[in-house]
């Protein structure tokens, strides 16, 4: 840019020259110290882009220089410098054609580059407008007048380009049918008397029907005031009477009409721009995003209400300050340097930033910084728009907590516990340390859930979690894997004994009873399995699997205890898995058979019935004992289908023998606790009896006492439901569980079966004999029949006889045998 600076004050001139050198090093600056020197330089040294002139010069004024420039139509922008408070002079300068002015106040030098740029843009725009030809659509019916006017204007005002038409219809045909400007014409020149319509009617159509705002100049031979008034009312821009010499005035009138039209359009555009600005301001004021605008030095010049809402700083506390007063101290210098580098280089930066509110609280925000540029593309301001994302971060943190923690106990869930274990293994591997994984399962937790309800179960789990946590170090991990299963992770373990100590401490912690909110007292113990890294596995899955296997052994070996993982547990687990797979297949392939063990009257040895006992005969392999597969069938739920099959098979067999006229007595079928829990036993029985046609009194159901207790409150309803079908009920394995006759007397039990472990030592163990005697006596008092299991010797039978036991089964008379053998030996006397 080339600038001529006309200034007589040497101090001002010096300051400005230095400022230019600093801010606009590429500008070519020429100096003049007076009006005459200014004129001289403009005339002699060639053109400049901008003249910057002080208003008060020793030999004249800046306005005179402006007039000199404008008279010569020099293509330069003109900016005047005024003293502060000299507003009038500034306005006069603008009226005289200055493109802008600058008041010499405190920081005018800083604003100077932007002002010069804007003035240059404005001057260029005005020049463009002035150099463009003005298109005049001229409607004149008289050929002579048309030719005369055309010739006159071509000479006096060649920039006015006339297109002549001879009718109103031709005018209408050339103009758009609706809206705004007239397209191909800048001004309309209409003769009043047109052959098809007078100019007033034509103006009415153009303004009112078509809504065109093109300037209209009307000429008429009749100088009537009434027509003139009407024309102006209809929106005609100017009105000229064809008096002698009017053609000399016409160019000025047309030019003025054109400029007025431009002015009207500019004003409309300005109004539109102001409306737009108002709208933008309203948007900025009402947005929930904080907005701050700073100048190029970074001083805040504007903020919106959301800024105050988020930061807590009112406008008077923020304006004029550098936004660094919001800094949180969380980011280092290089962070801010990177941000500014991007903003200066690309005019844009976006990212997450931590700031500090007025109340001292730190918060995260998502900030977008943009440079605002003027028409010449130079930055004038920076705008920062930010969203307070603290709520979002809180929600994210809550979601992450939910995803990684058990909602009931707030302990780490399986996902987090396993990921901590994985990490702990990495650390142990690096540091050559040992760690222990403890899998802990509550013993008979289901009983609490089933008998006291799920909310009591939940309360108990929370209490257990709290007790476990209280026994662990801060750095130990306690997680809930699901249900009543917990995991403890002990890192940096000196020796395996450390894990044993923690396990026994945990078992001790669970020793005292839990008293729940409703006053119920519950005893809850745990079985714990321990695996060690690196001894028992080197990845998290192996360690969990092995600790789990050890935990199952702890359960199998009496519960409320702890077991360490050993190699043979792996083999056991593999065998169980294999058995489970084969079991599923066996049921589908019909590899099961039912054997029947006969039961007899102690008094006379006669057959009173039999117990149905299932056998698994895999093809080509030895028979598998129910003791091996029934527990797995129960765990996997296969017992439901298997038990139903046994029941149907036995009922069908009994019905067949009865139909033959034989006397097989009652058939006893075992009912497992899992069958009761997982299926509708009553419906299953009803269906079996209906389908086979066996009379209900011929069917006896054997339920262990512990199965019954596991039903809790529902035991009574369950037994009443079964009894309502007409079947008989027997308590199996009596003596091995709670052996509570007081408990059993509430139910309509028909028979007690004394477990063979009591029968075995009847002859040698006085205690067993005393217990058996008491059981028989009490059962008789409760009107229950007593049947002894596992009778193997005549001595045992004699003692049972003495005690008054009514029935027995056992190898003394027969093991369980296939149906064919049973029929032959005990029914047909073969
Ligand atoms: N839910 C179901 N459980 C069943 C079913 N079939 C069997 N079982 C249960 O499996 C366990 C083992 O049964 P099993 O190997 O058949 O053992 C039974 C008898 O064979 C055995 N018995 C009988 N007489 C003697 C004897 O004189 N000495 C001796 N050492 N053992 C003997 O006792 C078992 C009888 O069991 P129970 O009367 O049920 O307690 C066992 O728990 C079965 O209940 C089935 O279809 N469903």
Write up what this structure looks like.
The protein is an alpha/beta fold and 830 residues long. The protein has five domains: 2-128, Rossmann fold (3-Layer(aba) Sandwich), CATH 3.40.50; 134-275, Rossmann fold (3-Layer(aba) Sandwich), CATH 3.40.50; 290-393, PAS domain (Beta-Lactamase, 2-Layer Sandwich); 405-565, Reverse transcriptase/Diguanylate cyclase domain (Alpha-Beta Plaits, 2-Layer Sandwich); 591-825, TIM Barrel, CATH 3.20.20.450. The chain has an eight-stranded mixed barrel, surrounded by four helices. It has a five-stranded parallel beta sheet with strand order 2-1-3-6-7, sandwiched between helices. Strands 9-8-10-11-12 form a five-stranded parallel beta sheet, sandwiched between helices. It is elongated. The model has no long low-confidence stretch (mean pLDDT 89). Ligand LFPHGCPZ is lined by residues 597, 611, 613-614, 625-627, 630, 643, 646, 670, 672, 702, 732-733, 756, 789-792, 809-811, 816. Residues 2-119, 135-257 form the Response regulatory domain. Residues 576-830 form the EAL domain. Residues 433-567 form the GGDEF domain.
């Amino acid at each position: 840019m080339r600038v001529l600076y006309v200034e007589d004050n040497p101090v001002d001139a010096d300051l400005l020259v230095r400022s230019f050198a600093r801010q606009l090093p590429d500008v070519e600056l020429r100096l003049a110290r007076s009006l005459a020197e200014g004129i001289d330089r403009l005339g002699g040294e060639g053109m400049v882009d901008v003249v910057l002139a002080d208003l008060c010069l020793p030999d004249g004024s800046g306005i005179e220089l402006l007039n000199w420039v404008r008279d010569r139509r020099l293509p330069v922008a003109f900016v005047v410098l005024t003293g502060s408070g000299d507003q009038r002079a500034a306005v006069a300068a603008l009226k005289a054609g200055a493109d802008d002015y600058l008041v010499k106040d405190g920081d005018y030098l800083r604003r100077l580059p932007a002002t010069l740029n804007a003035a240059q843009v404005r001057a260029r725009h005005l020049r463009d407008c002035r150099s463009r030809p003005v298109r005049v659509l001229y409607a004149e019916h008289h050929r002579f007048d048309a030719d005369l006017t055309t010739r006159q204007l071509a000479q006096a005002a060649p920039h006015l380009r006339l297109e002549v038409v001879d009718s109103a219809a031709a005018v209408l045909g050339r103009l758009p049918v609706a809206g705004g400007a007239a397209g191909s014409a800048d001004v309309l020149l209409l003769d009043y008397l047109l052959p098809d319509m007078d100019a007033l009617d034509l103006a009415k159509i153009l303004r009112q029907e078509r809504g065109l705002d093109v300037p209209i100049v009307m000429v008429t031979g009749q100088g009537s005031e009434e027509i003139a008034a009407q024309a102006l009312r209809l929106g005609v821009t100017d009105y000229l009477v064809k008096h002698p010499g009017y053609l000399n005035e016409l160019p000025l009138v047309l030019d003025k009409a054109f400029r007025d039209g431009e002015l009207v359009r500019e004003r409309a555009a300005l109004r539109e721009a102001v409306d737009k600005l108002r709208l933008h301001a309203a948007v900025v004021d009402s947005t929930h995003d904080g907005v701050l605008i700073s100048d190029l030095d970074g001083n805040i010049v504007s903020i919106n209400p959301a800024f105050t809402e988020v930061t807590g700083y009112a406008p008077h506390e923020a304006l004029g300050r550098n936004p660094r007063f919001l800094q949180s101290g969380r980011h280092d210098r290089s962070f801010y340097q990177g941000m500014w580098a991007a903003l200066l280089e690309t005019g844009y930066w976006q990212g997450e930033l931590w700031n500090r509110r007025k109340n001292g609280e730190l918060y995260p925000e998502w900030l977008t910084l943009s440079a605002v540029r003027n028409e010449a593309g130079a930055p004038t301001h920076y705008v920062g728009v930010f969203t307070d994302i603290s709520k979002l971060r809180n929600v994210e943190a809550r979601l992450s907590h939910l995803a990684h923690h058990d909602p009931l106990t707030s302990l780490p869930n399986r996902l987090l516990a396993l990921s901590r274990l994985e990490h702990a293994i990495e650390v142990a591997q690096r540091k050559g340390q040992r760690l222990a994984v403890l899998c802990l399962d509550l013993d008979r937790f289901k009983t609490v859930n089933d008998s006291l309800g799920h909310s009591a179960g939940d309360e108990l789990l929370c209490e257990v979690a709290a007790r476990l946590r209280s026994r662990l170090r801060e750095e130990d991990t306690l997680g809930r894997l699901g249900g009543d299963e917990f995991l403890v992770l002990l890192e940096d373990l000196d020796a395996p004994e450390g894990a044993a100590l923690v396990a026994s401490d945990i078992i001790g912690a669970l020793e005292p009873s839990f008293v729940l909110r409703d006053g119920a007292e519950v005893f809850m113990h745990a079985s714990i399995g321990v695996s060690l890294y690196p001894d028992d596995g080197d990845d998290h899955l192996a360690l969990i699997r092995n600790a789990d296997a050890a935990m199952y052994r702890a359960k199998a070996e009496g519960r409320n205890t702890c077991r360490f993982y050993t190699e043979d547990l792996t083999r056991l687990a593999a065998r169980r898995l294999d058995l489970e797979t084969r079991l599923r297949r066996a049921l589908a392939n019909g590899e099961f058979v039912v054997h029947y063990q006969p039961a007899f009257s102690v008094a006379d040895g006669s057959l009173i019935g039999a117990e149905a006992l299932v056998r698994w005969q895999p093809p080509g392999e030895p028979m598998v004992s129910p003791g091996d597969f029934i527990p797995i069938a129960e765990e996997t739920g296969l017992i439901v289908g298997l038990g139903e099959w046994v029941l149907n098979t036995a009922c069908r067999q009994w019905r067949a023998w009865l139909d033959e006229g034989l006397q097989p007595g009652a058939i006893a079928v075992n009912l497992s606790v899992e069958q009761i829990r997982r299926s509708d036993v009553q419906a299953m029985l009803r269906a079996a009896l209906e389908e086979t046609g066996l009379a209900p009194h011929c069917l006896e159901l054997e339920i262990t006492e512990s199965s019954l207790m596991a039903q809790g409150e529902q035991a009574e309803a369950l037994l009443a439901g079964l009894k309502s079908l007409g079947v008989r009920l027997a308590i199996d394995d009596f003596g091995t569980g709670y052996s509570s006759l007081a408990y059993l007397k509430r139910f309509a039990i028909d028979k007690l079966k004394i477990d063979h472990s009591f029968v075995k030592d009847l002859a040698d163990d006085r205690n067993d004999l005393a217990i058996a005697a008491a059981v028989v006596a009490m059962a008789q008092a409760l009107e229950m029949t007593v049947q002894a299991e596992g009778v193997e010797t005549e001595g045992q039978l004699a003692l049972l006889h003495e005690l008054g036991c009514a029935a027995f089964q056992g190898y003394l008379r027969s093991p369980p045998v296939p149906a064919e053998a049973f029929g032959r030996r005990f029914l047909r006397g073969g």
